[in-house]
Amino acid sequence: MDDGINDDYDDYDISFSNPMGEVFYSLGSQDNSIILGQGDDVPRVGENLIHIASVDGLWHQAERTFYALPVQPTLVEIPLISKLKNGELALVLEWQQGTSVNGQDIRQHNLDLHVEFKPSEDVLCTVDTATRQCNGAKLTADSQITNGVLTSIQAVKLSKVGNFDYLIWASQNKFNLTTINETRKKTLFGSLKVYAPHHSEPIFSVNLPLFTNEDQKWAGICFKGNNFTVSDPNPLTNNRPSVLTDCSPIIL
After folding, report:
1. φ, ψ for residue 245 (rounded to 5)?
2. Were both Cys, which of 6, 38, 136, 242 would link to 159 (CB 3.0–4.6 Å)?
3. Cβ atoms of residues 213 and 123 within 8 Å
4. What is the residue extent of each domain of the chain?
């Protein structure tokens, strides 16, 4: 996700402390990871603290703890979260992947975020992994590991919020695992959060219902763009949700 200015890219300074002193790396072109080798100018083996800051100050500064492993490179994923300006919103889907076990058939389950809106009579926008931007809405993705638990994130930033209905919904995606040793069933957990400028906490948050089959989708929530009036959460469905049919008129 860029800073919303002229669809440009941002560069980042990365630094961390180790026994040899402070080390700097550059991260450009919206990459969200770096690979650190082993040597005098890389972290010590074990826990390290890394600091990330954008050069132009338009992105949040961040710190992340990571673990450097012996005798092998270390991959560090960097969260890229832009500061929201007046009139913007960030729609964030977070989840911890699930695992289904049916005999020798082992599948991992993840989520995909979809944001749908109709900015004009002849334009219907659906922003997701297939179409990553439309009419000022852009999708980005990230992941992080905390206490050994992987949390995946997809976020859509609205650079301008129009006076029409928005539908935010989630679908499942799945893939088969080839390694089945000691694989256990895990429930897919997810949550949706909405962030606004000048608020450190989300202005809206809801947990997704638990999926009962792998074809289900969550019809999500609808909101009116001019004053962020939010509908009650919609139920699970086997059909593809649509802003044209799933967002009944919201009473203002």
Report:
1. -120, -25
2. 136
3. no
4. 12-77, 89-246
